[in-house]
Design brief:
The chain is α/β, with parallel strands linked by helices. The protein contains 13 helices and 13 strands. Helix 5 links the parallel strand 4 and strand 5. Helix 5 runs parallel beside helix 6 and helix 7 packs across helix 12.
Amino acid sequence: MNTIKDIYKNKRLAYMLPGVSMNSGGMYQYFQAWTNEFDDFPKEIFLISADAIKWKNKSSKFTLSNNYFKTKRFFISAISHHILKIRPFSFNFRGLIEFIEENKIDVIHIVSITIYADIIIEQLIKIKGLEIILTMHDPVPHDERRNFITKFLKSKSYQKIYKMAKEANNFFIHVHSKSILPESYKSKVEHFIFQQHPLPSPKVIRSRQTSPLNPGSSKFRLGFFGRIEQYKGLDNFYKAMLSISISNPELINRISLIIVGRGKFNKAEWLDLPYECIIENSFVEEYDFHQMIADLDLLILPYTNATQSGVAALGLSYKLPIIATAVGAIPELIKEKENCYILNNINYLDSQIVDILKNSEINSNIINSKH
């Protein structure tokens, strides 16, 4: 089975970022991780993106083009196609197709997905000699806080993408693991690439030192990062910390908590816990997000349902200890990494945290790996 690098080899490559509208955020960081592979590429690389993206890269192989990506037109085309059953107008894609053909691009890697990804792919697969890779971080859509129309369009887009993957010889879907593919497609994998995403590059250095066994040191910082949705299981983390405050009160003054991410949750109940608690319930700039991650002592991923985790990948880049539930492809990502723990039963999250805090050997490994 091909790897992504096999498809890239000796090709003129273009990355495409539909749905990414600024130089930050999870999907943009995924794209940055792919650019770490640039040194292995022998030919020029293009980025086709929305107007707001102002990518800066020292590589002379990299060319930015945001003149042919018409986000509003593509979005309107998706609504017209999926709701009104109107075929997308070809003139919306003419400039993009001409750019691809004039620059003799061989491979387009679409590194994020949006509700109009299917109508773009439908046009691209018609270009002779072009191969298309679509990275689907979540091959089964999450039950997110979205309005009905967005959920409907996303569902229709996914259905069409899977249909095209079965029929088009030049279209490949990249997912992190076969285990997260919808059951109905696990036996039809000719055009699927199963490959973990490259880890992002660290951007900062740790700014604090911690030893939970030394009363004079900083507190042991536990954190939850990322967009707050019900399936992310933030309430599981809360229950674990409440339980620890009751069963192990001697640890209260040794722990600090940090919650970083947009979304609705009960901030008051977190602030009522008897721990030092930092909450950043808003968008955080990329550099600050990296610094907050780097300064953690233990990353908590208490998800009840997930396919993969960009936060886990970033945590691994900073060699963080991680506790994660056994969902999606996350166990495959962290299973052989030092000081990473896979939790098969979320009800044991509190005891796993206590074990790490009280186990001098584990703590020594954590501290030595950070300094």
